[in-house]
Write a structure and sequence with these properties.
- About 60% of the residues lie in helices and about 5% in strands.
- By secondary structure, it is mostly helical.
- The chain has two domains: about 80 residues, Orthogonal Bundle (Arc Repressor Mutant, subunit A), CATH 1.10.10; about 60 residues, no CATH class.
- The protein has a three-stranded antiparallel beta sheet.
- Strand 2 and strand 3 form a beta hairpin.
- The longest helix is centred in the N-terminal third of the chain and has 14 residues.
- It is elongated.
């Protein structure tokens, strides 16, 4: 989390602003600093939002932490680890397992059966969300991530 915080703080610090447009943020990390591709930067933006580090309002992005308390080292360069996100399916399975008090193996069996019932016409993550909802497990916070995954996949 520390590395992600330093990564998202840098564009604001470099530009001397408390709020950036989404385009400015993407430009800063990809073209200005040359740390990531624009697509990777969008993943960083999404991860930071999910982690509660950034808040997006319309086309603006602002940090959800005190920028002044973050000191980015002069030679800082994020590793590729900052791009690694826990896969959505793993998040859903873990949530079902925790909340419904079921073993991971049992949860995977439930979502596989649901997926088969739907003849594989939907992504496995959608089947997992359906199982979670059927079991009364709150997954509202994951719906946006699922939608983004579904609409940006090839």
């Amino acid at each position: 989390m520390q590395e992600l915080t330093l990564t998202v703080a840098q564009p604001f610090k470099k530009r001397g602003k408390d709020v950036l447009t989404t385009s400015e943020f993407v430009f800063a990390l990809s073209l200005d600093l040359k740390w990531f591709s624009p697509d990777q930067t969008k993943m960083i933006l999404h991860s930071a939002e999910q982690a509660g580090l950034l808040v997006r309002e319309d086309d603006y992005v602002k940090p959800n932490f005190d920028l002044k308390s973050v000191e980015v080292p002069f030679d800082f360069r994020p590793s590729d680890n900052v791009l690694v996100q826990e896969p959505l399916l793993d998040k859903i399975v873990a949530r079902i397992s925790d909340v419904a008090k079921k073993e991971r193996k049992e949860v995977v069996g439930l979502l596989n059966r649901q997926h088969e019932r739907l003849s594989g016409l939907v992504e496995i993550e959608v089947s997992a969300l359906m199982v979670a909802i059927d079991l009364g497990v709150g997954v509202d916070d994951l719906i946006g991530e699922a939608w983004e995954m579904l609409t940006t996949s090839n």
